[in-house]
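Q: what does this look like with thiamine diphosphate bound?
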Amino acid sequence: MSIPQEKLLRLYRQMVAIRLFEERVNDLYTRAVMPGLAHLYIGEEAIAVGVCEALRSDDYITSTHRGHGHCLAKGAKPHLMFAELLGKEAGYCKGKGGSMHIADPATGNLGANAIVGGSAGIATGAAYASKYLKQGRVAVCFFGEGALGQGLLYEELNLSQLWKLPVIFVCENNGYNEYTHFSESTAGDVSARAAAFGMANETADGQNVREVYGVASKYIERARRGEGPAFLQFKTYRYHGHHVGDVARAYYRPKAEEQEWVTQRDPITLHGQWLMDNGIAARPALDAIQEELIKEMDAAVEFAVSAPYPDPSKVNQDVYV
Amino acid sequence: MSIPQEKLLRLYRQMVAIRLFEERVNDLYTRAVMPGLAHLYIGEEAIAVGVCEALRSDDYITSTHRGHGHCLAKGAKPHLMFAELLGKEAGYCKGKGGSMHIADPATGNLGANAIVGGSAGIATGAAYASKYLKQGRVAVCFFGEGALGQGLLYEELNLSQLWKLPVIFVCENNGYNEYTHFSESTAGDVSARAAAFGMANETADGQNVREVYGVASKYIERARRGEGPAFLQFKTYRYHGHHVGDVARAYYRPKAEEQEWVTQRDPITLHGQWLMDNGIAARPALDAIQEELIKEMDAAVEFAVSAPYPDPSKVNQDVYV
Amino acid sequence: MSETAAPPLQATGVRELTFGEAIKEAIAEEMRRDPKVVLMGEDVAEAGTTFKVLLGLVDEFGKDRIIDTPISEAGFTGIGVGAAMTGMRPIVDIMFGDFLMIIMDQVANQAAKIHYMSGGKWKVPLVIRATMGATRRSAAQHSQSLHAWPSHIPGLKVVVPSTPYDAKGLFKAAIRDDNPVVIFEHKISYKKVKGPVPAEDYVIPLGVADVKRAGSDITLVALSSMVQTALGAAKMLEEVGINAEVVDPRTTWPLDEKTLVESVKKTSRCIVVDEGYFRYGITGELASVIQEQAFYDLDGPVRRLGAMHVPIPFSPALEDVTVPSERQVFDLARQMCNR
Amino acid sequence: MSETAAPPLQATGVRELTFGEAIKEAIAEEMRRDPKVVLMGEDVAEAGTTFKVLLGLVDEFGKDRIIDTPISEAGFTGIGVGAAMTGMRPIVDIMFGDFLMIIMDQVANQAAKIHYMSGGKWKVPLVIRATMGATRRSAAQHSQSLHAWPSHIPGLKVVVPSTPYDAKGLFKAAIRDDNPVVIFEHKISYKKVKGPVPAEDYVIPLGVADVKRAGSDITLVALSSMVQTALGAAKMLEEVGINAEVVDPRTTWPLDEKTLVESVKKTSRCIVVDEGYFRYGITGELASVIQEQAFYDLDGPVRRLGAMHVPIPFSPALEDVTVPSERQVFDLARQMCNR
Ligand SMILES: Cc1ncc(C[n+]2csc(CCOP(=O)(O)OP(=O)(O)O)c2C)c(N)n1
Ligand SMILES: Cc1ncc(C[n+]2csc(CCOP(=O)(O)OP(=O)(O)O)c2C)c(N)n1
Ligand SMILES: [Mg+2]
Ligand SMILES: [Mg+2]
């Protein structure tokens, strides 16, 4: 499938934006400016970007504890996300949600979720509503391979296939559930688990943003046509710790393995190289994109840091409609 | 596989015993002697009998809401079961459990369960203990195909395969979840759901007790050798309603369908015929077995009906050890 | 409040309906009003639920709106949550309230918190139907009354109706509410409890208690099936000259503290009766609220009667003694009024 | 009871340990005593749990006894139930107490009822480790204190320790108990709370409250983290001449009513403080029990302080006001003692 030039450049820009965003999150944590913890998406950018590029703005997504990339790729504004991460009133959730609960109706983001696999039903329900209301919207459920351990996922695979709902289950297989290699937690074959329900499925390289975009587009449009759900597995890797505090990782994964992915499989480097090799953009153009985004992200952090905290009196608002 | 003669006869006897037991349960309900409801196993006898015949007496089973057949096949005494069904002190559970909770450590019966799929973890846990304690015991988890809707089952399939536990998942597919045909609740292929976890699996005729016994023996011994769990699907049919009160069934399944199974696929008739065709037993011998069991069952009902109810003061005993 | 105790006088066509019929009518009326209302659960369509309460609805609304599901309570409750966020008003039916234990993450970690976690941006207009009540000889896993659990969780509303009139009005309010609402229907009441119900459309606001019987000597606070028990006890008490007031909160959350407290301030005595497990449940909260706010008007401690703190046994000889009886309420009330 | 408040004098080698170290020591000692004790959960082995509390245990006991599981809380809890029935003494670790919502069927429909449903024939010596406590900036799904839920269910025992000494003694008792026990460990206390712990083997029986501070003017009943809060408030109260008694039930079930009631009869005033949601939870039951049994000795109503009845917010500016503070306890106590 041939991807128009400006799309190819947007794929690059979006990945860089997420990378820069997450680097600043890590910095805010290290400088003790951010309360709590955060799970960085660095290394996995191609999945969120490739999938969301294939979605309409009124399509839905559900996200995870590692959700910043999904939210940004679906159109979230960095300054409102930083504000939420810092617990400020100006944040997407007025500071009530934080890193693991960014939600935004304006961009179809049904919310990140701190319960592993917890959003499988929500995404399936949004797909059900879209079908019932004949809206032609598709819902994407992002989840890590660790969610394969949650029974709820299988109930939703069965229900969505049975009812031919326009939901796409996107398994981001980064090889680890927290500090455990997924081979120690996962028997058999991942995609066979979807195939068992008669669900369309495909496994692809999560570090190649064009491949992700291509595969996602194919199944998203299929779902939009009413031909049913799909299960997509993308092989990827998280460069940083399970969360920002997970720095000494040698006991559960070799440094060499990390190095190999960072140096050989980086989705941004690979796509940038491809853009240059194919004469779509020269280095200066790519650098310019990065420069521009750095300014944007620094300004966004600025905004968030100087934004006020919510007044304590707001604590019991928004409990009920 | 060739089955010794006395085993072939015991298979017949056990099936007849369950049939006669259940007929009396239905009668006790109809005559308003039994409190509450019960789910009859009539039509499915070959599965419990074939599987339990392949088990050691110290092996474990977990049972379901439709559990009388499993309990009897594993060695439960009819008079103590009838007593439990009538809520009498002499019952297996002192009247505290009733039809859906018959349990008996003496026969390795970990208990029937009123939560669909609720015993998948218990059976897997018993298999785990057997492996850890090096006891060589196998645990069988009986469940109806409706339990395929419960996420817990998939968690246990993954865990038991991952840890190579000696547990056998026996899916009794009688085609209906209560009043809904399983095709309306089940997407894809049933045994593929186990295969997806890399689990050994086989589908067989649940009306042929010799076939059930053969398949069960093969996988039970394999599990006992430490080669891991298995998933067995047996196709069967329940002759009566979902429970004793479900009499007008035409709205969810055709009378003709019921008739076909009752007249063409009855496990007792088929095995009896086979025994005669193969010169293992003549009609009089089979009739004798039946006569003897009728006496035993009637005596068991007698015992239960005349047994006393527990004293109300016992109500708060057995809450804690 | 008391105008909701009996049907409004101007009510057109008041019929005598059973508790179950009133619930079915509420659902049917709301489904006619609003095409976004759908109901899903196991065997809800042709079978009309295990309790046969919804028989016939599928004929009017079809299988796209009265939806049979696989045996996946967590799965379809999750679908209900997502559908509620995206324009629907789903009712999920989990049959036996005991099965709440399977769906609590979807109910209490997801549905209850989404509005708050999103800073008020998403809402979840979901109704969860659950049943409650023992003495059906269904044993420990099919007889529980678990309304205390969702009542403990901020973000949920909990409805526990006792009469056909209340059931219709409260159920309609629950469906129109923009928050997740768990409604507990008493199984035995489905057929056993009858009462006048207007054919017309009416809603009973959530959070308004109802005085089911006015009295002056003692207040009996009761929910669901225990309202009938309390009314029965009140009759017995009348014969010994004790005039009991029976107050039904109707919803555990929001909670109409004012009506409860005013009644007790008036009578100076109170027994809270509930069919849920006795410990760390409904009676503890209600008794605490009352003693906190009416302490100086109380003659003695607020007393409580709940289901015996044991798993519910199968044998009739045992099960019947686990649920508070008219006799127990009568004896305790009489002793408190020392007559 | 009070002899358990401080380590027995004859204690050999009393060390200062953190709350987390005491729990690890209890588990290690029991695993040495009894090969049938195993522990399973997510990242419990090399990672020593998400909270690092069990670091090193796997080196001594190996991966067959400190078992890493998939992210299947219901799945491995079910395995724990079955294994407990068949000769093991498993400890299942569900990490954040919020995940209890995923396993409640296995805990409350299965483990809690099996002994009773089987007429006493099967037993389930299972320990379920859960955490509780807010102010870690983990937001609504990782900060709850849900000890009220299992406390509502007959058949379960519920342990809520507040000090390292109690944690070790109660955890060992829980492991040796033949019933299913849910133990709630306060996350912040793991590192923050330190105290003397004997190196020797000792158990604290479940169902025995402990007077953490003797006093005469008012009784502060508190559990877990709130014991520290109550003790802090007691210090502040001392400065204004109010002598507060702090009573820690230590287990919500079995419940040592006697010790609570005796204290309140003596002081005639009581505040119950808990970190769980305020409504239909721990404080309601404890306040009810106390007013039922000590009513005529009470100066005024039993008062309650619990976590604000809202989902737990992320922002520090909001989260901190949801948990009862020393200041709140102090102000309320002072007002009640009108000084
Ligand atoms: C139900 C549940 N169990 C456990 C956790 C704790 N936890 C948070 S993230 C995580 C690992 C998730 O691994 P994976 O799904 O592969 O996502 P990744 O972190 O690799 O992106 C765990 C166990 C949780 N949040 N929810
Ligand atoms: C978790 C749960 N959901 C629903 C029910 C109600 N229920 C009891 S039996 C049954 C149907 C079970 O069908 P299947 O598993 O095929 O067993 P069968 O009755 O056909 O033997 C249902 C829905 C239940 N007991 N537990
Ligand atoms: Mg992962
Ligand atoms: Mg079936």
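The first strand of chain C starts at residue 14 and ends at 18. The first helix of chain C runs from residue 19 to 33.
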